[in-house]
Amino acid sequence: MAEPQVDTCSILLGVIIVLAAATLGEAFAKRFGLPEVLGELSMGIFLGNLDLFGGWQFFNLIWEMPFLRVLGDVGAIILLLSVGLHTDMRAMIKVGMSSLMVAALGIIAPAGLGFLTCQMIIPDASVYTKLFMVAALCVNSAGIAIRVFMEAGKLDTCEARIVIAATLLDAIFIFLLVGVLGGIIQSGHFLATGALKSGGLATLFLLSIGVVSLRYGRWLGDFVTKRLPESVKVVAVVTTCFFLAYLAGAIGISPIVGAFGAGLLVRDVRARDPEGAEWGMEELMRPAYLSLVPVFFVFLGTRVRLENFMDKEAVLAGVAITIVAVLGKLIAGLGVREKGINRLLVGVGMIPRAEMALIVASMGLTARVLDPLAYSAIIIMTVLTSLFSLPFLRRLLRSA
């Protein structure tokens, strides 16, 4: 049996191009006072669409290369691991009711407005097409807003905790929903036992991680810090992250949820350098964060095709659902119960869709229920909510 051929040189070239593009995008973003992630996304969009200008297809290797897609997925996992490392579960519980209310409104408002809008703009589409479009409206990015909070040094604020918790809750519910929809489309009928099983596993998974991190997180951190050799600690943390990410994907929820849970579990692990100085895992994981997370955002940008903006009907549909997407998440911000918390900041933090909407759209394509018009409308909504909400979020964080 012949071994598969791997073009190592092409892979290295692709990695170099992506990292250089990310660095250049970050520099431009800083120059104009914009979030770094916006620069990375913009460079990805630029590189991914150069073939439209003069037919130059050299950079197509970026979004066509499976290795870079996998590397971007690993970047998303490292991003959520870092978020978990920075997240205090006890502090998050204090805003638990607000998170539940924001998550609930973050689904109810976009779903209701979105379905009515779909009835008006694509009345002849199937109910499954409309439901997948509504699902894309209900999710929000687990990466972009969090990255902006981290850049601004505001990840430990109540607003950030509410956005993180509500985002994860919304993502779990929506991915369970689209998973059930995909099963119905393939089998032709609804399997209640399968839906309940998936929902129960996801709930049990999250509750288990939450309980273990609350009750045993500090003990686990002390055990690993004092008992394991220094050379093993980072490996143990990364292995835990990848294992929980795999486990989350295996039971039908997004792997990034598992990565976030891993961050909660190991956030108290400490390591010493050769000079005896003690460091937390968030500092030790920073090189991986700086190297891999930009790959995720640049690659995300390359998946945006500008030809989607050349269809008049798709643009109109995309603008219509973008308005719904923005209004729905701003309404979600009203779910904050505690006093002194910026509801507008929470609502704006929930607006970017990015990778989450693209995942839903790809699932709709796989299930063959999204036609080119509906898919293009989702892409347009994803781009607009991801790009244009970031400057407003940055401004609100500066004034907070």
Polypeptide structure, described:
Helix 10 (192-227) runs parallel beside helix 12 (255-266) and helix 11 (230-250) runs antiparallel to helix 12 (255-266). The chain is globular. It starts with 7 loop residues before the first helix and ends with a helix. A hairpin with a 5-residue loop joins strand 1 (270-272) and strand 2. It has 400 residues and is mainly α. Helices cover 76% and strands 2% of the residues. The chain has helices at 8-31, 36-48, 60-64, 66-86, 89-93, 96-121, 127-138, 144-151, 158-187, 192-227, 230-250, 255-266, 281-284, 286-302, 312-332, 343-349, 354-366, 372-399; strands spanning 270-272, 278-280. The protein has a single domain (8-399), classed as Na+/H+ antiporter like fold, CATH 1.20.1530.20. Strands 1-2 form a two-stranded antiparallel ribbon. The relative contact order is 0.17. The mean pLDDT is 82. The chain contains 18 helices and two strands.
User: Any idea of the CATH class?
Assistant: Mainly Alpha
Q: Tell me the distance between the termini.
A: 62 Å
Please describe the biggest sheet, giving its number of strands, its sense, and whether it closes into a barrel: 2 strands, antiparallel
Give the number of domains.
1
Would you count the extended β strands for me?
2
CATH topology: Na+/H+ antiporter like fold
Uncertain residue ranges: none
Following the backbone from N to C, one meets helices and strands in this order, namely HHHHHHHHHHHHEEHHHHHH
User: What's the CATH architecture?
Assistant: Up-down Bundle
Using only CA atoms, what is the Rg?
21 Å
* Overall pLDDT: 82
**Major β-sheet strand ordering:** 1-2
Classify the secondary structure makeup into a structural class: mainly alpha
User: How many helices?
Assistant: 18
Based on CA inertia axes, which overall geometry fits? Answer: globular
Strand content: under 5%
Task: State the helical fraction.
Answer: over 70%
